């Protein structure tokens, strides 16, 4: 039992010399963790919507004011964005109004996924 505890302590405190096989094994284990860990392990629950879909932004488009008739009409904006980028599966996540220095609407930022 003492040998097991001593080995665990040595791994946690990284007390092996660089030229030992234990050092090499620990380095390989770290590399395996880095390259083989699924990306989903690092996603936070805050980014997920009610249906479990992620709300991350894939792209942000800038639209002119004449392309957006009503900022609250996401269905119309989504239809225009789909036609513009050629993707039928695009989903509008957010629409933000951009104003110039005089306070006039200069365009809209549309986040899509």
Protein model, in words:
The protein starts with a helix and ends with a strand. Helices cover 35% and strands 19% of the residues. The chain folds into two domains: 2-37, no CATH class; 49-112. With 113 residues, the chain is α+β, with helices and mostly antiparallel strands. The chain has a three-stranded antiparallel sheet with strand order 1-3-2, covered by helices on one side. The longest helix has 16 residues, at 21-36.
Order of helices and strands: HHEHEE
Biggest sheet statistics: 3 strands, antiparallel
- Total strands: 3
Number of domain units? 2
**Rg, nearest Å:** 26 Å
Strand order of the largest sheet: 1-3-2
| Basic shape | rod-shaped
Average pLDDT, all residues = 80
Low-confidence stretches: 46-52
Distance between the termini: 54 Å
Spell out the blueprint of helices and strands.
Elements: H1 2-13, H2 21-36, E1 59-63, H3 74-85, E2 92-99, E3 105-112
Antiparallel strand pairs: 1-3, 2-3
Keywords:
about 110 residues, alpha+beta, 2 domains, 3 helices, 3 strands, rod-shaped
Summarize the structure.
This protein is 35% helix and 19% strand. The protein has 113 residues and is α+β, with helices and mostly antiparallel strands. It folds into two domains: 2-37, no CATH class; 49-112.
């Amino acid at each position: 039992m003492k040998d097991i505890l001593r080995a665990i302590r040595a791994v946690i405190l990284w007390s092996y010399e660089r030229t030992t096989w234990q050092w090499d094994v620990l380095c390989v284990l770290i590399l395996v963790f880095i390259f083989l860990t699924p990306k989903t392990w690092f996603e936070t629950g805050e980014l997920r919507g009610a249906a479990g879909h992620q709300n991350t932004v894939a792209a942000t488009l800038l639209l002119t004011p004449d392309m957006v008739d009503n900022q609250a009409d996401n269905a119309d904006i989504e239809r225009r964005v789909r036609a513009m980028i050629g993707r039928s599966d695009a989903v509008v996540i957010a629409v933000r109004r951009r104003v110039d220095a005089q306070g006039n609407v200069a365009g809209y930022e549309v986040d899509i996924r």
